[in-house]
Design goal:
By secondary structure, the chain is an alpha+beta fold. Strand 10 and strand 11 form a beta hairpin. The chain is 17% helix and 34% strand. It has a ten-stranded mixed beta sheet with strand order 3-12-13-18-4-7-8-9-10-11.
Amino acid sequence: MRFVLLLCFTACARPLPAESNKPAAERKTMPQEQAAPVAASTREPIVAPALSARELIDAAGVATFLEDRELEVAAIDTPAMERWFARPPRSVFVYAERRVEVAEPDETRRIRCTRVQRWDSNVLNELAVVVWQEGRFRTVLELGQSTVDAVDQARESGEWETVSGRHLPMQAIAWDDAHIRYAEGAELHEVACVPALRTVPCGGEQLPGPRGYCVDHELVIRPWRAPTFPHVGPVIPAYHDPIPDVPRGDCAVQCEPSACKEALRVALIPRAPLYAEDAPVLAAFRSQAACRAFASHREKARGKVADGDRSEDGAW
């Protein structure tokens, strides 16, 4: 018994290994005890510098928009327009590069420097001309300050009454003392500032590699549309410009606000309808000679061939 107790006392009296006597801060850390790396999402976001007004304008292509799209700017002489309305001619010569639908079902008429009579529609800022009439039916073109309407009429008891009407897809592009001209597809345009997604290199370089994303603004050029003014409630914009969703990137990015509003004050495009030179046109002339000269020039410029003009595809 004494021998067993002696062994126990001897074991308890032995010193501990040197490692166990070290303070906790000095002990060797085992691999499984090492701290995990900091997640990438906790890093400070990369700041995408703001784009200047000039950078936004250049990116939108405002300076070369007309040249790139091959668009012409309408030339409207406002005093000449007023003279047409104040002293309207009794007749004009109409030239149309598409056939015109008339009141007779499934019928169209080709109008090339055809003399037509004016009709007094009692509207001060338009010139109404009768381009087709048969029996008690007729079709009138209402040549307005900016647009053209075709109106089908019928006469039952001495007075002409409108049966149907349609808006032709064109706007005025030229107006002087000699003629009025409209072009298909002509439109006003605007420069707008809209929310946009920016892609930013995570490493600050422009080479392919990790990318992050943030929401900024950019300039766009688009056809002008009138907003809606309801009787009650706020004005409804013509376009809905939503904020884009930000996809998950390789790094966090924060956009500094670009100078979009400043760019809008500088990035101006003509406040007049823009049109393609080869777009089909409809025109009215005071003289037949001027109309025929214009028609001859147009047919040569647009490459008319003997078996027909491509503008005859479709009808107004």
